[in-house]
Specification:
This is beta-lactamase. By secondary structure, this protein is α/β, with parallel strands linked by helices. It has helices at about 5-10, 15-20, 80-90, 105, 110-115, 125-130, 205-215, 230-250, and strands spanning about 30-35, 40-50, 50-60, 65-70, 95, 120, 140, 145-150, 150-155, 170, 175-180, 220. It binds zinc ion.
Amino acid sequence: MPTRMIKTMALLLGISATTLASATENKPALEIKQLTGDFYIFTTYQVYNNQPVPANGMYVVTDKGVVMLDGAWDPTQNQPLLDSIEARHHKKVVLEIGTHYHSDRSGAFDFLRKKGVKTYSSLKTLELCKEFKEHEAEFYFTKDTTFHVGKLEFETYYAGPGHTKDNIVIWFPKAKVLYGGCLIKSADATDLGNVQDANLKQWPETLKKLQQRFPEPAYIIPGHGDWSSRRALIHTLELLQRDKRNRNETGKK
Ligand SMILES: [Zn+2]
């Protein structure tokens, strides 16, 4: 849920945003953990249905600055995230890519742009950001693109619709890291999460294309939840199969 919506809801309900935020008291505001080598996963939270919901982003340290994939979902954590990166690595974030138009992926564009970070999304994502009044990246790419920052190489890949019609993944060939964003659910996810804008019919095909293109990732990073298991992609396929069965059964009634 976008923060402004939470704030509006809080105002309508006559309670303060702080009351809602207190539901996250048991959770840290910002977690940063090393994935491997120069790769780090950061997690921030938003309160949804009175529960703290985590969202993952990633950053990679290069000899020419830090590359970030998606920003903090909790906008109050964007500055602490940059501060923490600078304190730990003595480097600035130079480039960020948002992997689809929802606010957990696009919400940091304006903040990062003001900080001098080059923000990117696909053209499709930019168009959807405009349509749904989300933050917009400064730059866009029109097709799958390979980036080079210092010695780091990575590529964007659009395998098809799934969680949204614009969701892309990012592949780091040397470290074999597949950053899946919300196209991939965590291995411990019990459902498909927010499927309001999803294409449930094509999602499995999209994932199979992804498997073919990157058959042996060493790490798979989902948009939300646990990121320690390479079963995440297969588990997402299982969740989609189960969802399809449930919908078929409901349809028969
Ligand atoms: Zn998401």
